Amino acid sequence: MKIGIPRALLYHKHHKFWTTFFDEIGVDYIVSPETDKQIVANGSNRAIDEACLPSKIMLGQVEWLLDKCDYIFVPRQKYWLKYEMCTKFWALPDLVNTTFRDKKVKLLYYDIYDRKVYRERKAVYKMGKYLGVKRSQIKYAYIMAKQAQMNFDMLRTQKQNAMLESSDKTKILIVAHSYCVGDKYIGEPIINAVKALGCEPIIADYIDEREGIRASLDVTTTMQWPYNRQLVGAVELLKDKVDGIILVTAFPCGTDSMMDELLIRTYKDKPMITLTVDAQSGTAGMETRLESFVDIIELKKQAQQQSATDGE
Amino acid sequence: MDRKDIIVCFPHIGNYAYAFRYLMEKGFGVSYLIPPPITKKTLEIGSKYSPDYVCVPFKYCLGTYIEALALGANCLAQIYGECRLEYYGELQERLLRDMGYEFEFFNMAEIKWTSPKSIMKNLKIVNPDVSIAKVVAAAPTTIKIIEALDKFEDFIRRNVGFEVNNGEFDRTYNEFLAQLAKADDGKTVKKLIKDCWGALNAIKVDKPEHTIKVGFVGDYYTVQEPFSNHFMEKELAKFGMEVYRQMNFSCTIIHNQNKRKRDYAKDYVKFDIGATANSTIAEAIEFARSGCDGVIQVKSFGCMPENDAMPILQRVSEDLNIPILHFSFDSQTSETGVRTRLEAFYDMIEVRKSSERRKAV
């Protein structure tokens, strides 16, 4: 038996957890490759026009996996850390099922369907039972997987924090969902462009989940999407340490359309730019905009230094 | 603030402003401003101050708020939901405050429904000395008004295309609404409803034996607010179609049928896919099975749950052999484009029907 994991959406958030879990229970798995133009095109053909780019990529990745495995792992996550997710994540298994109905695709269900704290563990147990694994083995695998993911996240956060302190390059905060910033088609060109301009990209998504959500409580009271909250919290925590903010949105992301407005209104004195990525143009024309954005930041920085020395 | 000075306003959705008025004036003891009808101007103002990619209902609500504030409203209300609607209230309040308006904001997303203290605290935003007993006493009549509005509109939707004297339904109904805006107690409301129902039934209708029936589904706001779907129900009636619609306040808030509908759509959707998407699919299936000739789905552009419902609706269309037409409304959709597509849809259904009849003969 072989399980296919599409490299899209929540894979970028939980990949260590999932892969370690399947390793520990001894199930063979295959992860689809990095997103390229062909996968995006396949996904766009399958999806309706209005669907958001990450969900199109998801369909493209699933299509790549179709003949290469027995089960496809499409998680459904309705809640995360007691907050409601975007409805796309509620509908994902149904969406994949309907889209590939004539291919007789078999999905491995993994369903976090209410806000209770232990729901993730329950979902893992249910999936393990379906795969015919012993309970004790699932328990062990779950703990190992959880720890692996935690270590991975923690090291990433620590590394970034250390860089924030030590680096004296211009630091630019990239505010984007994990499935945008971690994707080769959406995120990587932006990060590379920022690096090429001689700046240090700081990824807002790399901040600790709980810490970010806690910080976001001061900014917004009724926002329900946990990952958006994490990003808002990241901006709140890092706003004094960075020089500029890039808001990356995959067109037409519903949650980002409102979060961006909140960020623009709350942090008025920070230089901010919105980059929208869609399936057709990708990130074309972005370099020029980023270049002028960085120029503005550097001019502002120089002016500030000038006034500081004049003051003395 | 003195209680006489509070003027509450809720964004337009269908004709429910008349029910809200009764609840606010009789239950909460504050005055209510029935907002002016939505026009192109409302949408223009709303789009000007809204984020670009947000769904259109947000823009309509914001436009209505700005117009109402200019007319003297000073307490605005917003509901909550499972999709972006949950976050509407906070962002709209923020936008309006940044524009320099002063008002109270009753945001139902802030209420924790499990805590009586939180409920009371939020209700006191509307009226600092609110009496729960009075609110409860006004509730039955409010519910009666909502049910009557839904029943009448349902009746009108099915018959307005076949009226003998043009415009008679609209005239009767508008008269009823005008009187409802002045009704002060349960008895008057009851009498009004009875009279109007009689008057509507007395209107002469010339209905052929076989009519074209169309089901109307879509997202909560767009399907219920006629301006936001370009008065599509009326356009359809002009072609001589019967329009059926299940989505209204009675079927969702008063007699909640979400669970029944979710079960009904089990073959196509295994899970709850958010907000109105499950009921959209269930309604489409129900219309197809009960002999409708076509289904029209209306939604705002980028509506998260309805987007997920679209591919599933295409499967329903394939399986049950029923044409489904999708409309996405943005702030700039042209009216002519809508009418052309509707005409084509009508022609297609008619050709299908006549070929079926020929086969049967």
Description:
The complex is a heterodimer of chains A (312) and B (361). Chain A is of the alpha/beta class. Chain A has helices spanning 11-24, 37-46, 53-65, 87-99, 119-130, 135-166, 178-181, 187-196, 209-216, 226-238, 254-266, 286-311, and strands at 2-5, 28-31, 71-77, 79-80, 83-84, 107-112, 170-175, 199-203, 244-250, 272-277. Chain A has two domains: 2-148, Rossmann fold (3-Layer(aba) Sandwich), CATH 3.40.50; 167-311, 3-Layer(aba) Sandwich (Rossmann fold). In chain A, helix 11 links the parallel strand 9 (244-250) and strand 10 (272-277). In chain A, helix 9 (209-216) packs across helix 10 (226-238). In chain A, 43% of the residues are buried. Chain B has 361 residues and is α/β, with parallel strands linked by helices. Chain B has three domains: 3-130, 3-Layer(aba) Sandwich (Rossmann fold), CATH 3.40.50; 136-208; 211-361, Rossmann fold (3-Layer(aba) Sandwich), CATH 3.40.50. Chain B contains 15 helices and eight strands. A four-stranded parallel beta sheet of chain B has the order 2-1-3-4, with helices on both faces. In chain B, strand 3, helix 4 (85-98) and strand 4 (104-107) form a beta-alpha-beta unit. The termini of chain B are far apart. The model of chain B has no long low-confidence stretch (mean pLDDT 87). Classes of the chains: A alpha/beta (312), B alpha/beta (361).
